C-alpha cells in the first residue's frame, strides 16, 4: 500500500541530491568545446590537388557535390603536341543535404578533401549552406595536422625519398624500375609535393 505523499518526498530527495552535485554543463559558446581532431565538422577542399576526376560527386549518396570544369591546352616546350588539363570552375557542397558520411573524402584519390572539426557555420537561410570552392578552400586553415608518425613503424615514402636524396650519388640504391600508382602525400601542407592536377595533364 502506497503512503500518501511518498512520490513527492522521493522526488524532493532526488532534487536535493542533484543540487549538491558538481555541474558538468559545458558553457558553450563562452567556452569552446575541446573536440577530438577527427571530429566531422565541415569538409575542406585543397583545390590544387583536385583533378576533376568526379569520383567524389559520383560516390556521394546524397548527390550534394556539384562540380563544373573546362579543359585547357597546355603547350609544353619540346612536346609533339599540346596537352590538356582540367580546370575546376565550380566545386560546391550543399551542407543542408550532406549526411557527413565521409565517403567523398575516402573516395578522393588525390587528397583534395579533408575533414575539419570546425562546426560553427549554422545559417539563418538554408541556401547559405551551399559552400563554394572558395569557402571550402578557406576551411583548409582549420584542418588538423596529420598524426605523428609511429616511431617504431616503417618510414613514410616521403622520408625514405628524402633520405635517399641526402646520400652521396655513388651510395644511392639503383631505381626499382617502373612502379604502379603513385600514392598521395600524407600532409596536405607539404610544400615539396607536386600538384596532382599537373600529374593529370594528358
Ligand atoms: S560526407 Fe557524404 S553526404 Fe556529405 S558530401 Fe561527402 S559523400 Fe556526400
Ligand atoms: S575532390 Fe578528389 S575525388 Fe573529387 S573531383 Fe577532385 S580529385 Fe576527384
Automatic annotation (TrEMBL):
Domain named 4Fe-4S ferredoxin-type: residues: 41-70, 89-118
Where, if anywhere, are coiled coils annotated? none
- State a single Gene Ontology molecular function: quinone binding
Keyword Transport applies: no
A Pfam family (short name) is: Fer4
Q: Which residues bind [4Fe-4S] cluster 1?
A: 50, 53, 56, 108
Q: Where in the cell is it found?
A: Cell membrane
What is the catalytic activity of this protein? a quinone + NADH + 5 H(+)(in) = a quinol + NAD(+) + 4 H(+)(out)
Bias (Basic and acidic residues) occurs at 151-162
Instruction: Report residue spans for region: Disordered.
Output: 138-202
| EC class | translocase
Which family is it part of? Answer: Belongs to the complex I 23 kDa subunit family.
Q: Which PANTHER family match?
A: NADH DEHYDROGENASE UBIQUINONE IRON-SULFUR PROTEIN 8, MITOCHONDRIAL (PTHR10849), NADH-QUINONE OXIDOREDUCTASE SUBUNIT I 2 (PTHR10849:SF24)
| Known function | NDH-1 shuttles electrons from NADH, via FMN and iron-sulfur (Fe-S) centers, to quinones in the respiratory chain. The immediate electron acceptor for the enzyme in this species is believed to be ubiquinone. Couples the redox reaction to proton translocation (for every two electrons transferred, four hydrogen ions are translocated across the cytoplasmic membrane), and thus conserves the redox energy in a proton gradient.
Query: Could you identify this protein by its name?
Result: NADH-quinone oxidoreductase subunit I
Q: Which gene encodes it?
A: nuoI2
Amino acid at each position: 500500500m502506497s503512503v500518501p505523499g511518498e512520490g513527492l518526498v522521493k522526488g524532493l530527495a532526488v532534487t536535493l541530491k542533484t543540487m549538491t552535485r558538481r555541474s558538468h554543463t559545458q558553457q558553450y559558446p563562452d567556452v569552446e568545446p575541446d573536440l577530438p581532431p577527427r571530429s566531422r565538422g565541415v569538409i575542406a577542399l585543397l583545390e590544387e590537388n583536385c583533378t576533376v576526376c568526379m569520383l567524389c560527386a559520383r560516390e556521394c549518396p546524397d548527390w550534394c557535390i556539384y562540380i563544373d570544369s573546362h579543359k585547357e591546352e597546355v603547350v609544353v616546350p619540346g612536346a609533339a603536341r599540346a596537352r590538356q588539363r582540367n580546370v575546376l570552375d565550380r566545386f560546391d557542397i550543399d551542407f543542408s543535404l550532406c549526411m557527413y558520411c565521409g565517403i567523398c573524402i575516402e573516395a578522393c584519390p588525390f587528397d583534395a578533401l579533408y575533414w575539419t572539426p570546425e562546426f560553427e557555420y549554422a545559417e539563418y537561410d538554408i541556401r547559405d549552406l551551399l559552400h563554394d570552392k572558395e569557402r571550402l578552400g578557406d576551411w583548409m586553415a582549420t584542418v588538423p595536422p596529420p598524426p605523428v608518425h609511429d616511431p617504431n613503424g616503417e618510414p613514410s615514402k616521403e622520408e625514405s625519398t628524402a633520405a635517399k636524396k641526402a646520400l652521396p650519388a655513388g651510395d644511392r640504391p639503383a631505381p626499382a624500375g617502373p612502379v604502379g600508382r603513385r600514392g598521395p602525400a600524407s600532409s596536405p601542407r607539404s610544400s615539396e609535393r607536386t600538384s596532382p592536377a599537373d600529374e593529370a595533364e594528358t
